[in-house]
Task: inverse folding
């Protein structure tokens, strides 16, 4: 039985009762907590940044899974690591090819786990050259920028291609999927080879939050 990691996305949380929200998801078995950082430039939305991460990062025991949808990851990465990121995932599309390894190496140099995220239109082969350095690949199953969007089935083919490549190279890189995840789409992602499921609107604000997280972990 595969241990599926659930990473609830804070973008859908009620910040007027954030401590309660953290306890709810952690007590339900969420092992990671997904921070969706948006700068209003790389994506057409603004969410939250370093001060919010700093205020939350040590108020729970989940892994701080920080997804930066921002234009200048090299400049801001150290600030998010300092604020408490345990895993920092930047966007492949936000960095010139010649600088991708520089960003990876800088994040690793600060003893932080590193991930690359790719948008739906980006070919998964583009990140193959970096796989051996990556702890996580974050496959976007929606256009980044908003919670509550519909799952894009095209993500499934990317997940299975990536799974085969990781296994063929005997790497330990984990596959995380993000966007439109529920019990039906989550199962398809796990069957395709995913390890971690990000879910925002399917979890936060739901009366049966506890049951939903436990269900996702057993897919
Ligand atoms: C979108 C974010 C996702 C999103 C997930 O840009 O990266 O993490 O918050 O929200 P749901 O699960 O509602 O699609
Ligand atoms: Zn995200």
Result:
């Amino acid at each position: 039985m595969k241990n599926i990691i659930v990473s609830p996305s804070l973008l859908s949380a009620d910040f007027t009762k954030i401590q309660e929200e953290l306890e709810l998801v952690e007590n339900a078995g969420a092992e990671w907590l997904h921070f969706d950082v948006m700068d209003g430039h790389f994506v057409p939305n603004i969410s939250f940044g370093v001060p919010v991460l700093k205020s939350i990062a040590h108020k729970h025991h989940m892994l701080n899974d920080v997804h930066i949808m921002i234009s200048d990851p090299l400049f801001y990465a150290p600030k998010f690591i300092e604020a408490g990121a345990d895993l920092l995932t930047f966007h492949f599309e936000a960095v010139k090819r010649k600088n991708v390894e520089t960003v990876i190496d800088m994040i690793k140099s600060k003893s932080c786990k590193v991930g690359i995220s790719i948008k739906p239109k980006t070919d998964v082969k583009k990140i193959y050259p970096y796989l051996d350095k990556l702890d996580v690949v974050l496959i976007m199953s929606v256009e980044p920028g908003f919670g509550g969007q519909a799952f894009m089935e095209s993500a499934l083919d990317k997940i299975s291609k990536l799974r085969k490549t990781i296994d063929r190279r005997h790497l330990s890189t984990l596959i995380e999927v993000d966007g439109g995840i529920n019990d039906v789409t989550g199962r398809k992602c796990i069957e395709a080879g995913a390890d971690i499921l990000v879910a925002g609107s399917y979890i936060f604000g739901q009366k049966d939050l506890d049951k939903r997280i436990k269900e996702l972990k057993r897919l």
